[in-house]
Amino acid sequence: MFNDDLRAIADDVLAGSTEADTDTLWMSVVALDWPLVGVPESSGGAGGDLADALELAAAAGRNASPIPLWETGLAAWVLASSGLGLEVLQRGGVAVVAPDQQVRLESSATGLRVVARVPAVTWLRPAGGVVLVLPSAGRVVALGPGDLGPASFSTNVADEPVGDLVLDCTAEQVADLDPALLPAFEARRALLRSAAILGAVERCCSMTLDHVRDRHQFGKPLIALQAVAHGLADMTLERRRLTSAVQEGLDRGSLGTALAARAVAGSSAGTVARIAHQLHGAMGITREHQLHFVTRRLWAWTDQDVTTRYAEEAVGRLVLAGSGDDELWALSTDGR
Amino acid sequence: MQQGLRAEIRAVVAAADFEARCDSWMRGFDPAFSRKIAEHGWIGMTWPVRNGGGGRSNEERLVVTEELLRAGAPVAAHWTADRQIGPSVLRHGTDDLREEFLPAIMRAEVVVCLGLSETEAGSDLAAVRTRAVQVEGGWEITGAKIWTTAAHVATHAYVLARTGPPESRHDGLTEFLVDIGTPGLSVRPIRDLVGDHHFNEMILESAFVPDRRVLGAVGNGWTQVTEQLAFERGGVERYLSTYPLLVAAAEAGRRSPDRAVTERIGALAARLVSLRRMSLELARAIDRGEAPTRLAAELKLLGTLFEKDVVEVARYAFDVCGAEPGDLALLDDGLITIPSGSIRGGASEIMRTVIARQEASA
Ligand SMILES: Cc1cc2nc3c(=O)[nH]c(=O)nc-3n(C[C@H](O)[C@H](O)[C@H](O)COP(=O)(O)OP(=O)(O)OC[C@H]3O[C@@H](n4cnc5c(N)ncnc54)[C@H](O)[C@@H]3O)c2cc1C
User: Is A52 within 8 Å of chain B by CB?
Assistant: First the structure.
């Protein structure tokens, strides 16, 4: 889709993710340097471009891989873009934008003291690193596992770790935040999340197709019933429009198109999970069945990083900013 | 992208005198405007130069069609010929037929209507009963077509007729291009839900069509018409029919800002980005010589769902933010457009069946 060769390899490596031991799975992607894909080699990354990173995010979604694969890559991209080293991300990590009221910075004799309380950070784990992006302070701060205070950890509906970040430490790795980095970060994150959702959507479609072909009722496969076939069609329509939205965001590289993709992703996620479950019947509700690994992710991801509503509002503000339909037309056609 | 071309079209549109409306590609009939479009080389612009065409890409044509519908311009007089009959003549027509039709279409002298549907052949198009019987020098066609848009103002009718035995279904169909003035061909108006006249009954009683007006091969009509439908379904008119209303709703949301209205406009704008991308992919596929039937069905279905939601959001925006003079008339214009969208060109259920079948065989 974004890089077909990588897609095939990634599906190979990530197949069986839901049953794998997560440490082993993480080691195998680290061995391939995948968590640092999309980050220049000159900055310690694995090279490759955003298309490669999106392909990996989609693969992680498709295979419901319980590792912070693209999340780490995004955090690494922030560090590299800010001239910082990637060491804190050795065992994975995340980047978070923290608003003023959650963070206090104080210059002290020994360096920059960071006092922070950021609730509900997905993929915050005792072993992982955190990249704090602080817009008002104009700083980027890299924190390793040792810097994290006593945090409370839980999980979201997809069983992904979620932690409240509680900090009081002296930051060693600090850089100025390039003002242009913030929208670029928001765009990159929106596209990566959309690609991950797309992957999960793809998996829902393929699992549902298999199921409605195999399962017989009324003496025929379910797919022979028109209502069932049309439900399947509606799922693939969501897959289609989301694929196109992400591709457009990738090609254009603007914050507007990335948020548009994110808005589409959020609405597709719910529709696809709903139809997939409906067509799987009771079997799809069981722990034993694989479907929940992807549908629970779709539910969690709909409002992760930013909510879908936020993305819609942001796109709305953008198109209402100009006069007439200037911005709306520019956003959709790329031609003023 | 295509800045120059866009600017040119906008200048032509700005100089013309018309009122922007929804569904302008079906309801906005203005031969003088179509001739102006023709003068700029925007009809038949993708056809090969050796056939007198413009030799430009479908990506460029996308720019032309979307700018015209953006403005709600009256393009109905040339739309069908440019969109599907010209391409069909190009693909399947003899040299004679190409010479007869392509230059005339490009000059906007041909207004063509589509004689596909019949009372007993709607969604089930292969049930067509209109018969063509071979006679000296050509064919005699007898039957009744219905819902034939623009037959009353057309110069020519495209007619899908049965040349095989009555039960031959998909195998016994042939396409014809018939002069609208042919003796035995008559047109009766059908008024639509608001009393407008765009579609018709078209009756053929032993109407003679010369051999040279057979389009493609006798008996190959089904394959050809299926291809034609990819052109019919995959255009920007499947999502831009209510665009003027979307712009009015956005204006309302700008006049008196409201968070929920902003969100809804934003959600529509996001969908528009992906629809437009699908159009671009479709244009590129056609440029590669493919007939992207599935993508066309997907675009039609997603597009008409989008158009429907535009009307709902506009209704909401005018309520919350207030309407300007003209807004409510435009809303009515959109409302009456919506039921057609999911029927004409193939009902949404048929699209879903096409898509599901291809998904299962992929
Ligand atoms: C504004 C407008 C302009 C038109 N212009 C033209 C024209 O220029 N030339 C022309 O030839 N035709 C034209 N048509 C006709 C159009 O192609 C047909 O209306 C369409 O193919 C559906 O046929 P029908 O109306 O007979 O509906 P039917 O086939 O009777 O179907 C009615 C409804 O039943 C359902 N349905 C039907 N079949 C199935 C199925 N297999 N599975 C599930 N549900 C099904 C659908 O909901 C469908 O809408 C036009 C129609 C409209 C509304």
Answer: no
